[in-house]
Each structure stands twice: as structure tokens, then as C-alpha cells.
Amino acid sequence: MKKYLAPLLVAVLMIIYFIVYFGIIIMLIENLLFKVLLGIIPAIFSGIMIYVLIERIKEIRSGEEDDLSKY
Fold first, then answer.
1. Which of 47, 36, 38, 42 minimizes the C-alpha distance to 19?
2. CB neighbours of 18 closer than 8 A, spacing ≥ 6?
């Protein structure tokens, strides 16, 4: 279980960072179109982070803990 802690923690912190950072920017902008566009960006970044987290968990489960050993 310890092996999953670091990737999970990094993913959660990055998602929180995206939401807070873009949330502050959205509050400062008055144009509705830009607010919608800036609302989509953290959603896309969060989806990518979740995808990367799932891939990393698959790698850990398969016993491939060191990505750099491939290269």
C-alpha cells in the first residue's frame, strides 16, 4: 500500500492546485466566455492526472516500479 501513496498524493495535490489556481483566475475575470473556457482547463488537466494515476497504479501492480529501467 505504501507504493500507491506517493502517486495518489501527488495526483490529489495537483488536482487541488488546478482547481484553486483557475478558480481564483475565474473570479477575477468578468467575461462569461473566458470563465467557461477557464473552467474547462482544470477539468481537462484533472482528467489527465487521473489517467496518469491509473496508469502508474497498473505499472506498480505489474511489478514495474522503476520506469527508468526501460531506457
1. 42
2. 41, 42, 45, 46, 49
In single-letter form, the type of residue at position 10 comes to: V
pTM given for the model: 0.76
Place of cell 506517493: 6
pLDDT at 38: 84
Query: Is the separation of the CB atoms in 3 and 22 below 8 Å?
Result: no
Comparing C-alpha atoms, which of 52, 50, 31 is closest to residue 42? 50
The rounded distance, in Å, linking the Cα atoms of 42 and 60 is 27
52: left (phi over 0), alpha (psi -120 to 50) or beta: alpha
